[in-house]
Please model this.
Amino acid sequence: MLQARNIVKSFGGQDVLKGISLDVERGELISIIGPSGCGKSTFLRCLNFLEHPDLAEVRIEDVSLSCNGRWTRQDEAHAHRLRAHVGMVFQAFNLFPHLTVLENVMLAPIHVKKIAANQAEIIATELLEKVGLKNVKDRYPDRLSGGQKQRAAIARALAMKPSVMLYDEPTSALDPELSEEVLSVMRALDNEGMTQIVVTHDMRFARAASDRVLYLEEGTIVESGDPDQIFAHPQEARTRRFLRTILS
Ligand code: ADP
Ligand code: MG
Model:
């Protein structure tokens, strides 16, 4: 359902992504691991053109977009359609502080999809129940724990009915038990068949929950495979070195 070909991106002469390609099947949960600064966030942001790649071809569902450095208004219109298929969740939650949890989740369906408020409320309430936040739906974000905020951010992304969810270190700001609340929501979504790509430092989650793990270093995919290959039988010396460092 997602095909990315040869994503290249540099910042001020520094080659950050050196031609990354990825095909994702519907329902897959893919973890992206790798050292800080290797291009993980840039890759996720290029997938939905939040960052303009120097070179890329991306197809998500029925929307294809290729670019070669120039960025036209037509590209922006395509990117807009492509992003409609993508939900994105960041480390820093990014909820609107002046809106309740329920209002945060209702906002985009009302303003972007032009759904009637009462219908949006029904959808939002169902999603908040799914992520275990129905009882705090009328609270403002500053009255939530970090784990609750992140689950609200997931519900907000889901409200747009994305085909794929992208997460950039969704649990890095959280204590272990609050992380677990978030990861279990992601596991439940996986069981329902959601397609998810997760940048994570949580090796336990990457190993236990992923269908596929990508190891990124210096802007290239060094190795990809099922979790058993990557964690128990890594083929590449660079993968082994990274895992030794991070697991020790
Ligand atoms: P990761 O998420 O793996 O830690 P990033 O994708 O955030 O890595 O960054 C990869 C490299 O690109 C880093 O060297 C970072 O400093 C650089 N970089 C990222 N975003 C920008 C930007 N907007 N401007 C300049 N350099 C950037
Ligand atoms: Mg990052």
